[in-house]
User: Which sequence fits this backbone?
C-alpha cells in the first residue's frame, strides 16, 4: 500500500475516534435526555458520522454505531431493564448499514446485564456466540456460577449435606467442559476489547481459577488465560499462569516455548537459558530447543554460548546451511566485519540456492557496518528478524 494511503487511513481513524470521544462525553453528561429521545439521538449520530465521513466503509460505520449503543447502555440508569436494552438495539440496528449484524449488540447487552446482576437475561443475550470467542463462553459460565452463589445466599440450607454442587454450578461446569471440547478462539471478537467495565475481567479470571480447580487436567484453560493476559498486557497474570503451567506440565513444549519468549521480552537471559536447558533435557531429539539456545546466544553476543549450542545443533542434524548462516550471524551481531565478510563469501560459494537471501543480507550488512548508529540498529534488527523467521520455517517451529 502506498505511503500516502496509509497516512490518509491513519488520519481518518484518528478523526473517527475523535468524533466518538465527543459523542461519548455528551452521552455521559446527558444520559436521561438521550434515554428519553433515543430515535432522535441515533439520527443525529448517523447524520454526524456520514456527513463527516461520507466514504466511510460499512464495517467502521457499524462498529461506530455499536460502540455508541454500548456507551448509552453503561451511562443510562434505564439500561438495567431489558425493555430499554431492546429499545437501544432496535434504534442502533436502524442506523446500521448491515441490518442483520446484531451479534456485537447482543454481546454488549449481555455484558451490561451481567454487570447489573441480571444473569438469566445475560445468558439469553450471549446465546451461542461463545462459538466465536471463548470469552463469551466464560461469561456464560460465570453467570451460572453467580446464580448458584445467589441461590446459596438466599437458601436456608446453605450447605448441601452431601457436598454436592447446585444445578446452576453444574451448568457452569458443563459450559466450561463444552468450551474445552470445542476450543473456540479467544480475543476473536475485537469489538468487545473494551475497558469500560471491570465485570468482564472479574468474570473471566474467576472462572479460569474455577476451571483449574474443577478440571485440573484441562490445559486449554491455561492456554486461553495466558493468551488473554498477554493480549491485555497483564504481566502479573501472565507470569503466574506460565509459572504454574511449567510446574504442572513439565514436558509441555507449548508452555515452555511461551515462557521462553516471555523471558526474552523481560530481558531475563538467565531465565531464558534455564528454560532452554529444560526444553533440551525433556525433548532431546527436537531441534527447536537447540535453535532457541542459538537464538539466545546471538541476542547476547556470547560466542562461548553460541559454540556450545552450535555443537549440539550439529549433533542433532540441523541443516548445515543454517549453521553457516548462524556463523555469519554471530559475526554480524558482534560487529566483526572482516570475519562476517569472509563468512558471507564462503556461504555464497558453497550454497548457490541461498543467492536471493544472501543478496538481502549483503545489502543489510552495508548499513550494519556503517557509522550511522540509527541505520546500524535498524538493519541489525531486520537481519535478525529475517533469520529468525527463516529458521522457524526450516525447522518448522510454531510461532
Assistant:
Amino acid at each position: 500500500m502506498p505511503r500516502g494511503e496509509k497516512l490518509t487511513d491513519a488520519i481518518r481513524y484518528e478523526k473517527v475516534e475523535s468524533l466518538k470521544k465527543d459523542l461519548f462525553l455528551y452521552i455521559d453528561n446527558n444520559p436521561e435526555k438521550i434515554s428519553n429521545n433515543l430515535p432522535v439521538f441515533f439520527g443525529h449520530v448517523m447524520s454526524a458520522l456520514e456527513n463527516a465521513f461520507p466514504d466511510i466503509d460499512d464495517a467502521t460505520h457499524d462498529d461506530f454505531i455499536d460502540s455508541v449503543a454500548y456507551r448509552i447502555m453503561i451511562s443510562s440508569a434505564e439500561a438495567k431493564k431489558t425493555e430499554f436494552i431492546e429499545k437501544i438495539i432496535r434504534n442502533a440496528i436502524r442506523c446500521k448499514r448491515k441490518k442483520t449484524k446484531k451479534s456485537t449488540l447482543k454481546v454488549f447487552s449481555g455484558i451490561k446485564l451481567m454487570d447489573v446482576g441480571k444473569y438469566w437475561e445475560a445468558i439469553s443475550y450471549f446465546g451461542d456466540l461463545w462459538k466465536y470467542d471463548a470469552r463469551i463462553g466464560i461469561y456464560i459460565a460465570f453467570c451460572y456460577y453467580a446464580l448458584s452463589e445467589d441461590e446459596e445466599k438466599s437458601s436456608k440450607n446453605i450447605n448441601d449435606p452431601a457436598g454436592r454442587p447446585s444445578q446452576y454450578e453444574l451448568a457452569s461446569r458443563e459450559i466450561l467442559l463444552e468450551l474445552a471440547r470445542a476450543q473456540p478462539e479467544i480475543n476473536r471478537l475485537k469489538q468487545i476489547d473494551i475497558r469500560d467495565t471491570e465485570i468482564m475481567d472479574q468474570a473471566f479470571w474467576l472462572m479460569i481459577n474455577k476451571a483449574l480447580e474443577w478440571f485440573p487436567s484441562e490445559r486449554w484453560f491455561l492456554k486461553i488465560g495466558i493468551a488473554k493476559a498477554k493480549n491485555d498486557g497483564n504481566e502479573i497474570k501472565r507470569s503466574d499462569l506460565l509459572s504454574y503451567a511449567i510446574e504442572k506440565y513439565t514436558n509441555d513444549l507449548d508452555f515452555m516455548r511461551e515462557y521462553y519468549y516471555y523471558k526474552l521480552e523481560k530481558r531475563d537471559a538467565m531465565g531464558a537459558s534455564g528454560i532452554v536447558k529444560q526444553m533440551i533435557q525433556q525433548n532431546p531429539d527436537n531441534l527447536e530447543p537447540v535453535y532457541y539456545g542459538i537464538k539466545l546466544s546471538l541476542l547476547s553476543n556470547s560466542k562461548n554460548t553460541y559454540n556450545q549450542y552450535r555443537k549440539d545443533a550439529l549433533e542433532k542434524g540441523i541443516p548445515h546451511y543454517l549453521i553457516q548462516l548462524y556463523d555469519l550471524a554471530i559475526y554480524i551481531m558482534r560487529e566483526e566485519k572482516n570475519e562476517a565478510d569472509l563468512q558471507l563469501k564462503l556461504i555464497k560459494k558453497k550454497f548457490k540456492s541461498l543467492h536471493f537471501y544472501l543478496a538481502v543480507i549483503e545489502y543489510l550488512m552495508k548499513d550494519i557496518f556503517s557509522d550511522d548508529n540509527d541505520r546500524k540498529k535498524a538493519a541489525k534488527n531486520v537481519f535478525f528478524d529475517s533469520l529468525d523467521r527463516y529458521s522457524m520455517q526450516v525447522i518448522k517451529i510454531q510461532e
In short: The longest helix spans residues 3-29. The chain is about 75% helix and 0% strand. Confidence is low (pLDDT under 50) at residues 1-7.
